[in-house]
Amino acid sequence: MDDEDAVVRRVSKQFEGRRHRTLLWFGHGGGTAARGQRAVTLRARPIPCGPHGGSPMRMSRLFGKTLRNAPSDADTANHQLMLRAALVQQLAAGVYSYLPMGWSVIRKIEQIIREEMDRAGGQEVSMPAIQPAELWDASGRMETMGDVLFKLQDRREREMILGPTHEEVVVDLFKKQVQSYRDMPLMVYQIQTKFRDEARPRGGLMRVREFTMKDAYSFDADWDGLDASYIAARDAYVRIFERCGIPAIAVQADSGAIGGKDSEEFIYLTEVGEDTVLLCETCGYAANEEKADHKKRELPDAEPLPLEEVATPGQKTIDDLVKFLGVPHHGTLKAVFYEADGAPVFVAIRGDLDVNEAKLRNTLKAVALAPLDDDGVRKHGLVAGSASPVGLSGMRVIADDSVPGSRNLVAGANKPDVHYRNVNYGRDWQADVVTDISRARAGDACARCGGTLQTKRGMEMGHVFKLGTVYTDRLDGRFADEAGELKPAIMGCYGIGVGRVFAGVIEANHDERGIIWPPNLAPYDVHLVGLGFDKPGVRESAEQVYQQLQDAGYKALYDDREEGSAGVKFNDADLLGMPVRVTVSPRSIENGGAEVKRRTEKDAKVVPLGEAAAAVRDALAP
RNA sequence: CGGGGAGUGGCGCAGUCCGGUAGCGCGCCUGGUUUGGGACCAGGAGGUCGCAGGUUCGAAUCCUGUCUCCCCGACCA
User: What ipTM does this complex have?
Assistant: First the structure.
């Protein structure tokens, strides 16, 4: 105990010494020394300011310089601002460095995530980025994700990959640590660098190849347990985004080729987002376009009329037929051709609807899905413009569920310039699969309540996902249940893109002048602007306020730069976006002290120099 | 992978069509004058014009190849 006290005393003393020197240098030398001399002094003896990470900062020492013009590569507000404010620096396509202020924000976001994941019962771990390729062969994802994997070999030529996600590794970890239902429920998470060789990195930090991700995995013994774990993670996400100042909403999401039960994405709605979301104002239904359902127009039942050919010279599209034959869009049958993992697929959907390729992909369980190219169309004898499922053979036929109930449609006749009237499903043709493969669009009716759907763009911040037993089946992640029977554990996985949150925070919190950090994420609590240092006493006053702010426990960014007009400093303060700005200048002193204003306010108020910290406290109060 | 655009000093750009040895604004350095919303004067540093071949007396500029970056699409557990 005594020893500990001694250490504490010694450390405190060091700090006092540092502060003392700070005051000496600037209190006595700052205002009066010749200019060049002072600059030399600053550079020769940079001031250590407390422990790593938590320090105040002088702008004359801050690493990273603001830009007046945004680099031409950036075309969203968040990307431009993070570059102009020197928060990040690009190294290669989708590969970024973080500078001190940017990294500080990242750490704060991570801390919020930690606190909320811990609160949700998660336990933090750290799993390797380097992973043996065999593990990915075993899960089958070497094949399905092959293109996005960064691959490498170790010196013994063993194939390795850089982890794009950690389902494989976490199941391995689970197997070695858990054998019994008694060890569940279990939720582990990590905040770690992921690697994905994206086909096209884009949008600043929104789609990158190396990025920080919080990924969490839950293991439960039964499906009710999974539901509970999922809700806990979901609730944590709601709190995380709220604390980060991002108005993200949860929308139903496609669970992709991996399958699984429920899946929701947390989306921040903004025009600059790359995802499309369908929303129903009436009932609150919200879903990613890939997943969204809608109510299709129901047609009155009608007597099937006899099939008849009709000449349609030059009529190749649905719109052509509608005009030429005077039928409504929903009176036609649309044919679309795809190639799924090398095999041709014929898709039939009513003419008033479009194909949702995500739904189609899931139906086909296909890895690669693309529209069939012209060569493929020719090769398979399809008659583009008059293609028809009637009399078709030699390929799979998938029909949208809008088709069977729609009577007497106009469809192709598999002969150029000829169509059929009165095509009826069941009588004239049949599909291999009938299911919903239709894309919901703005203006469509909500599947849940019949209200009108609208579309919005959004940025995906996070994804929660009921995985089920896909990985524990494939990788043998089994446990003994109460009866001693071995069963695969039931998994959930929950991801947050930390860099995306960072970008989202800026996108959601800026104005034309710059960033407006939410106070709990700001790199500094307060931005102290010193002006007119050549006037007697001004620098000393600013230094005193700087010290006062630190003594009061605030982390301050102090613009102590000798050079720089008021305009430059104020514009930098607005760009960098700390919640509160304090100005000490000849004018402010003449007016009675320091000016204090919130980033969001236009006008400042003057407070006595000695009350600057108290005024900051008021300004930061919610 | 398909389509489009761009590589000239830290950032933004001109010069390329029509070949003659590189320029502007901001930033940076030195000195001075300034100081409340991106100041001014003077002086200065910094660029193998993405890279490699080729044509030419001579290439940022013309030709060929190649690399990189950005945008749209494809792709995105």
Answer: 0.95
